[in-house]
Amino acid sequence: MNVKTPTLLAALIALAVPNRPSAAAWDANWPQFRGPDGAGIGANVNLPDKWSATNNVAWKTDLPGRSWSSPIVWGDRVFLTTVVNSGQSEPPKKGLYLGGDRREPPKAEHQWKVFCLDLATGRVQWEKTAYQGVPQTPIHLKNSYGAETPVTDGERVYALFGNVGVFAFTLEAGRPGPSASSRTR
Fold this sequence. Notes:
This protein is mainly β and 185 residues long. 9% of the residues lie in helices and 24% in strands. The protein is built from 2 helices and 7 strands, in the order ααβββββββ. β3 (110-118) and β4 (124-133) form a beta hairpin. The longest helix is centred in the N-terminal third of the chain and has 12 residues, at 5-16.
């Protein structure tokens, strides 16, 4: 059976979490990729139709690293992941092209991180390094080692970082929480 890893992760969390939030709490937040039911549709009707780098932006926060994951929201917190390369990252190229596959992983040490931001201000509430080391596998130039979106059950935030592992942190201070993975931070 071919099951995509994020779907499997969400299923494992749903089974492993004894105190799953109520349906109302789940629906009032954005706890996973594409929202509470995976449809990518929010209930807020007051969202802007257009935005840019300066128009209809409540706040901006510069964070280190590179990531393609989506942020998630629980209560007044925004959670996201990133991977910071301590060496030189090859700049991504625009457009469609062949030749972006890399045969060798980078030699520089990387940090796989989870960030918690304040929803109202964008201020970093906490930052945790889930794992630090040299990547064991290469990636395509247009990809990132931080591609997977985190998920939360309202008590912990779970971050899957490809073949590095699954990491669980409490929402409040990022303290390590129990995880169904062999790697817990």
